[in-house]
Amino acid sequence: MARQRAGLRFRICALALGLACGMTWPAVALAEPFQSWVAVVVAGDDKGSLGGPTKAFDNARRDISRAIIGLGLDDSQVAQFSVRPEGDRGQRPQKASARAIYQSLSTLAPAARGCLVYFTSHGDPRGVLVDDQILAPQILGLMLDRSCGEKPTVVVISACFSGVFVPALAKPNRMILTAARPDRTSFGCGEADTYPYFDACFLSAIDQVADFIALSRAVGACVADREKTEGVSPPSEPQVWIGPQLRALLPLLTFAGARQAETLRLGGPVAAP
Known about the structure:
The protein is an alpha/beta fold. The chain has a single domain (34-253), classed as Rossmann fold, CATH 3.40.50. It is 38% helix and 16% strand. It has helices spanning 2-20, 56-70, 98-108, 137-147, 165-169, 197-206, 212-230, 244-247, 256-265; strands at 37-43, 78-82, 94-95, 114-120, 123-124, 127-130, 133-135, 153-158, 174-178, 239-242. Strand 6 and strand 7 form a beta hairpin. Helix 6 (197-206) crosses helix 7 (212-230). The longest helix has 19 residues, at 2-20. It is globular and about 45 Å long. The N and C termini lie far apart (49 Å).
């Protein structure tokens, strides 16, 4: 009996070490994979590509926050930021600034199992715009190092030239998804746009896929199709980078919709209407 218990402890430890080291394991979905995650969603500007007012970034911030909550997070686990927080009295975002974003991450992340950070804004080769300042990749990297640390972390940057964030943020425990190559613009941030193209694709895909790996592929394909349809060029070519520690873990972090669909497929209980 003692030998059997020792063997069981060894197998449990081996599984834990395997996940930590990025080994491939069967994709058995965790019951509530995002229950203890936290998220920060930032609309970094309220001006369109021609300098006039736009609601595209705040629309994306609002609806992406709702979609993230739909993954299984609670409202209290999602912090929202806007350059014009007074314009959304329903969700009451905080005023966007690098300091405020870092303070929020520092408060939320210590008790969390993982972090999800999403920026939607204008960008240039120096970084992403947050109100009237450029947040550089190296600064965001330090913010994540000191808050989320080695926890599984997904970072999404929807902005022109956002591929510049990949080298600075790339770590074994992170996934980085950006709206464009480091030398390309993204599209859909004009005064009349409802969402930037990338954010619209993120929202349309998140209910159709099972996890972040599938989401990155679906968003990339959607953006390419949208840009071709709209006749804009050169193509933005969204970028994705997945650290070795996350390659085995991400398929286990299944989205709530996919879990419900699997329950129904297996003949599980159906909620009353």
